[in-house]
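[Archive record]
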Amino acid sequence: MCEVVRMPHRRPEDVATIRAVLALDAVPLFPLPGHVLLPGLPVPFHIFEPRYRALVRDLLAKPAAERWLAIPRIAPGFEAAAAGEPPLVPIVAAARLAAASELGDGRFHIAVIGEGRWHLDEQPGDRPYRLGHLVRMPEPVLDPTLTTRVANAVRRIIGEHPAITEEISALLDVERHGPASVIDRLAALTLVDPDLRQRYLEAESACCRLRVLEGSQCCSGEMPGLN
């Protein structure tokens, strides 16, 4: 049984992130089937639907500190209704728009970085895309005794995947970045199955997150870029 450990003392940048999202009445939603955004690393997306092109343009018109959205998973079993308004899984990571490049035909390449753990409450709106309010959820924190397990997981994954670059290895440095950030990055890199990713995000203790991670499927170790 995993013990639930509550909110830790936070770094200034973490506090700034929380305040920025809490200050927003609503964020735009970009629901996707079979995808769960996790905190920690940039993830690229190709935006081609007109309603989501409008979403990106609306975000780019805002100050950088207000460029937040949510990318909830479409509820399993409703993937075929993605073009409409299917039900959504409500536990999400907030998504910061980190980069956007408009193509000649109006499509976009964007990159977002997941931040924290939030409960999504959908809100009515007059935009072509859906809107939601994000409610902060407690973050699991790592008991000091679990730090060694995180470091061991890093060594194992780097050893098993020689394709992992020096850039990624640096981001997985527990001493430099702290175990909480590193475990999120490990999950973003190695968890492939959306059910496992959702289970990781919803886990209420670091112990349970480590258990999900230690039983994960692994990808090639390539980190998506911001370009």
In short: The first strand starts at residue 27 and ends at 28.
